[in-house]
Amino acid sequence: SLAGKMLHMRDEAFASLAGASPSFTVTEVIEPSDSRIFRDVRGTFQVPLYMTTTAPGALLNLDANHLPFTTGGFFTANFRCMVPYAATTNGALPVRPARPSLYGHGLLGTENEVSAGNVRDMSNEHDFVMCATRWTGMGDDDYTTVLTILTDFSNFPKLSERLHQGMLNFLFLGRLMIHA
Length: 180
Hints:
The radius of gyration is 18 Å and the shape is globular. It has 4 helices and 5 strands, in the order αββββαβαα. The model has no long low-confidence stretch (mean pLDDT 94). The chain has a 5-stranded mixed beta sheet, with helices on both faces. β4, α2 and β5 form a beta-alpha-beta unit.
């Protein structure tokens, strides 16, 4: 039942793009970041909202067939991308584009974990542009929700349903990374 809801959300949300890129805004560029990272790019992007609200603990909007639906609102997700020096020619335009890679943090983390030293090393050593967004449902802002689940397992849908939005956010970030 979880996969069916997620596939429905994915198919409907991608159809709404009609082949276009998700809407995004770059809010900050740090250049150069260090000897491995040429550019640290931060911003936001828009994802159709399938939750009752954007707040932690929100549930999916479900129709009579128990399929998620959007009311037309959007989830504003943060992103952070590390562009390595390997993606450039000594800091100039690249000879070939770097490979895109999505980075996912662990429980109660943030998109800023993409800036860890080991990730910077891998990015530059293997010519990956590493981008991350917060795993909605597993982010540091979901701490209180996770605690309520530990004391009352009937609250689990507040995590699992929010993870659907998180997965969709990651899929949209991937589309944003590869779109011309």
